Recover the amino acids of this structure.
């Protein structure tokens, strides 16, 4: 089992990262993809991914908008060239749009630049999308990427899901699936083919509502898989195999 989106490089895990990876392995969670968030974190992120045998992506998250977008995109291009061919390096991201955060125009500029880089380097994209689906769909249509990517932390209904699928993207399903009130998302998972989904926790964020600890960890992943299996009316083994296959295929793991 692979957690396809976990920020295990963040300080939240500094005090118990070794113990956490040991527990993950005991639960059958063999690896994770650590997405990039900011140029200031890339070096540390790559070091941790290498030490703990994880995959990683490089990108700039819309919450960490740089002062000078052009300079940061140049740095990102250099960093990607350096890492290209390294088997642990699998995608461009995390990038995207977030209407709940400031400077939407700058976010659009930063995302366009990153979508161009993804095409230039033949990489799939890990996308963060909050309340911006029209703008994001327009931008993805404008920069078609044959490698596709994932709309991580997807929370929408079947129609929105289908729009992203038509553009060549998969949907990253996280802890929200455990929330009985997340009706749109649960409908999406019930109705669409399992081949369009990836499984993720977004640790340390997006802690499922049933968990009392504030910090989210990949240890919750098996519960999400059984919930998806229940919604799809399939066995957990079947769902797990398919989810693994989807991740291996998209990120060429
Ligand atoms: Zn993330």
């Amino acid at each position: 089992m692979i957690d396809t989106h976990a920020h295990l490089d963040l300080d939240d895990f500094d005090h118990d990262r070794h113990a956490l990876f040991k527990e993950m392995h005991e639960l059958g969670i063999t690896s994770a993809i650590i997405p990039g968030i900011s140029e200031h974190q890339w070096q540390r992120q790559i070091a941790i991914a290498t030490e703990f045998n994880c995959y990683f992506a490089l990108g700039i998250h819309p919450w960490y908008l740089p002062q000078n977008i052009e300079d940061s995109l140049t740095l990102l291009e250099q960093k990607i060239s350096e890492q290209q061919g390294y088997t642990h390096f699998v995608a461009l991201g995390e990038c995207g749009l977030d209407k709940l955060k400031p400077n939407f125009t700058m976010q659009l500029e930063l995302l366009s630049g990153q979508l161009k880089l993804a095409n230039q380097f033949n990489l799939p994209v890990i996308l963060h999308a909050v309340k911006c689906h029209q703008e994001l769909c327009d931008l993805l249509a404008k920069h078609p990427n044959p490698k596709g990517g994932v709309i991580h932390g997807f929370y929408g209904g079947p129609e929105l899901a289908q729009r992203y699928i038509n553009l060549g993207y998969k949907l990253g399903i996280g802890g929200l699936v455990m929330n009985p009130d997340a009706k749109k998302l649960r409908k999406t998972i019930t109705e669409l083919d399992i081949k369009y989904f990836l499984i993720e926790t977004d640790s340390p964020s997006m802690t499922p509502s049933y968990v009392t600890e504030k910090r989210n960890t990949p240890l919750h992943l098996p519960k999400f898989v059984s919930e998806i299996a229940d919604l799809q009316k399939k066995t957990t083994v079947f769902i797990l195999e398919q989810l693994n296959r989807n991740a291996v295929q998209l990120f060429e793991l």
User: Anything to note?
Assistant: The mean pLDDT is 97. The longest strand covers residues 89-98. Strands lie at 2-3, 31-34, 55-58, 89-98, 125-130, 149-152, 169-173, 197-199.
